[in-house]
Amino acid sequence: LCLVASAILWKFCSFRRLRPRRLLTFTSRVFLTYILASGPVLGLYTFEYLPYPVAVCLVAILALPPLIFANRIDENHLLALSKKHDSYSIVSARKSKRSIMFAFLLFTVLWAFGAPLLAEGLCLVTHNTALGLEAGFIQLFRIGISNKVLRSLFASDLKEILKGPVIHTYITSLEDASSSIVLNVQTVASLQDLEVHITKPKSHARSILQPFKDFVNGDPLRQRNIYSIPLEGLTPSTIFTAQIRSASFELSHDFVFKTPPSLKNENDVIRLIVGGDVGNTEAGRHMTRVACSQRPDALFIGGDVAYDNGFTSCFACWDYFLRQIRDCYNVAGFAMPIILGVGNHDVGFSNFYIRRDSVRYDLPSLPPFFRYFPQHHTNSTTSRLPFFLHSFGNLHFFSLDSGYLYSTSKGPQREWFINSLKRITSTNATEKPVIFVQYHDPMYANFSVDGELKEAWLPLFEAYDVRIAFENHNHCLKRSKPIKELRKHEEDFPGVVFLGEGGWGARLRHIGRLKRDYHETMAAYQNVWKLDVTSMVIQAEALTLNGTVVDATTIRL
Question: How many alpha carbons fall within 13 Å on the CB side of residue 551?
């Protein structure tokens, strides 16, 4: 885009197109052409594909064409702009030429050395309006801009978060979500002797002396160790105490977490909070506190979690999201698993993504969405996938990729989804399973139906009796009527209810009169859905910022 824009500007850098006394306009076009042409080089440097000396040389070399072009300006061209040919105008024309050359040379030197410094560690984000200079960001038209210089000079609050020795502690889930969790501990890079001891209850006492460690390199503020400790065979619906120790830092820190219940008997109740599009906004932080005041057993977030756009340089967005999670744990009185679906802003900027059906990242470029959050069994950090299943006894919750990295209609994700549905339904022949699905891009959106998603997934939803599909992305509140397409003539088939639309913390969108015939509810509210699930009924309530229930539905099983 930068190269195309610079080529267009270059075409218009013609004296024949300039009216008299527009020398400044011409000069500014030459300068802007050079700035845009250097954009790709700065982009490569930002993403650490070029070292600083190479970036400086390339940016300086790009100045040669406009410099040669400016040198070819003669007095006749400059005089044509003023339509005067007296001796004073000729002298002024020559001075103007020398001024243009000197200004451009000076700018080239400053730009070649300074622009890469400004581009180093560049981060561009939306829906992070709560992050100011104390986090190393400046806000411009609701776009957060940060770089290494800003973070070095300011970011006092971010540095306070990252001073450690323990930076963040949180838990994610494995496939058997009621009895298997992953305890994740982020520490300063110098802490090398972390130990984890499960001290309560005594029946589960165990010690993990050398947990798996992933070292994150790069920006000094980004550097950290991520210890991921899988704990399996735990008792469902039980509060545990993990003691985190380090002899070198004289650290002994207790972390209290609770395993979710298992839906097996009539008296079992599972409380879930489900939403999407969080970000770091004042509304999002308040919505998180409201959600966690319900003391849920697990948090499900269906994509666009921190809005880092997959930039490793936007690590601060995740640090502030995880601070929201810490505050959530404090409000609830215990830690519960967070389960994250993938959204467009988790792996790329807006919808400018590249679908890769065999996606594999190298470790330095691995987005924090994958690097920070192990959510299924895998052999390595780089082989983590954006689709997985978490089971709470007879309740099965799928998280899917709605086409950002893996296709919805073919390939590994579809094969895995079909095989998992078959396995669940075949192994629960005596008791009908309860199946939920979350993904980011909506099928029954607030303004239209996504035909590709509908063709790929709705037949599977109906064939395997998916009860609720949670959709996000459009920053509002939505509840659909029960949808029946292929099985619309079956009276005993209740249909699929679509909830959500992603209004956790991101700025709400104006929906106007967008309610369609498939909508039961459509409104502009910050919201999360609270679900109380038993073996007989699902009670779903939409909570808004003050904790008020703004919509509710009951689904019989």
Answer: 19
